[in-house]
Amino acid sequence: MATSVGTIPGGMATPAMTPAASSPESERDAEFQEHEKILSPEFLSVAQIIEMLREDIDGVQKKLATFLNFKKLKTCLKEAILLDYYTSGFLWAREMDFSIIQYSKFMTLLDMLLHNLRTLHMSLEDSLKWLGEVMAEIGPSQLQKNEKWNVFDIKQAKAIIDYLKISLFQHYKLYEFLFYSTREEIVIGTEQTIEVVKPSGCLFPNPLEEGISFDIYSTFIEPPATLDTEMKGSDHEQGPEESQPETSTSDTDPLAGFTIEDVKSVLGQVTDDILIGIQNEINEKLQIQEEAFNARIEKLKKA
C-alpha cells in the first residue's frame, strides 16, 4: 500500500492514503482524523468548560487559576498576566455564545499562540501566518467538502481574528518581553523592632499594665538612698564655700590699679584719634567741593 506524508498547521505530519490504493470512504475517514488533530490536545476539557460556564467573572478567574496551577498570583507578574489573558478570552467567548466544541477550540487556539511565542520564538509575521492556516482548517472554506468540519462560521472567524488582533497581536512585543526578558526579583519586607520587657533588677519601669501607684512603689519597692544622697549632700555643703571666691572677685573694682591722670591721658588719646579722623574727612569733602566750583567758574569764563 502506497502512502504519502502531508502537513497540517502546527507542523504535524500525518500519513495520507493515495487515491490509487484507497476507497472514497477510507479517504474521507483519513481526512476526518487529520482534521480532528488540529488544535489538539485540548487546553481545557469539556468538564472544565462546563464547570466554568456556571461561574461569574471572579469564579471563572479562580477556576482557571486552579486548572493552570497558578499559586503565586500575588507575587508573580507573569502568572497574573497569563491568567488575565485566558480569563479575558473565555469571557469573550461566552459573550459570543460559543458551543462547547467552539469553547474548546478557541481556548486551545489562545494557548497555542502563546506556546508558539514562548517555545518556538515565533515572530509576529509567523504567528499571523500560522493563525491563517489554522483558521482555514477550522473555519469556513470553499475548498472543504464537508461542512460539518467547520467549527466556526464566517462571522465567528472574523470576530476571532479581530479579538486576537486587539488582545495578543497588538501587544506582541510586551508578551515577548514577558517570556524572554529576565527581571530582578524585588523582595518586599518590613522589619519590626520589638522591645522586650527588662528584668526586675533593671532601672526601666514596668509596663503600664503591671504598673502600681507611686505611694506603694516608694514605700515598699524603691531602694533606699545611699551613695547618691550622700554625694548630693556633700555637693550642697561645698556649694556656699565655692561661691564665696566668685562673689569676692565680682566685688573688686577693675580701675583700682589706675590713677585719674592715667584715665585722662587714655581718654585724651582716644578723643584726639577720633577728632583727627573727622577733621581729615571734612577737609577731603571741602577740597572736592572747591575743585567742583573752580571747574564751573572756568566754564563760565570760557563762555
Description of the structure:
With 303 residues, the chain is mainly α. It contains eleven helices and two strands. The chain has helices at residues 24-36, 46-53, 57-67, 77-95, 100-118, 124-138, 154-167, 172-180, 214-221, 227-251, 260-302; strands at residues 3-8, 12-17. A two-stranded antiparallel ribbon has the order 1-2. A hairpin with a 3-residue loop joins strand 1 and strand 2 (12-17). Helix 4 runs antiparallel to helix 5. The longest helix is centred in the last third of the chain and has 43 residues, at 260-302. The N and C termini lie far apart (138 Å). Residues 1-21 and 142-149 have low confidence and may be disordered.
Helix count equals 11
Strand content: under 5%
Which shape, going by the Cα principal axes?
elongated
- Rounded average pLDDT: 75
Would you tell me the structural class of the helices and strands?
mainly alpha
| N-end to C-end Cα span | 138 Å
- Specify Rg, calculated over alpha carbons: 51 Å
| Sheet with the most strands: spatial strand order | 1-2
Please count the beta strands (DSSP E, at least 2 residues each): 2
> What pattern of helices and strands is seen along the backbone?
EEHHHHHHHHHHH
Biggest beta sheet summary: 2 strands, antiparallel
Helix fraction? 55-70%
Low-confidence stretches: 1-21, 142-149
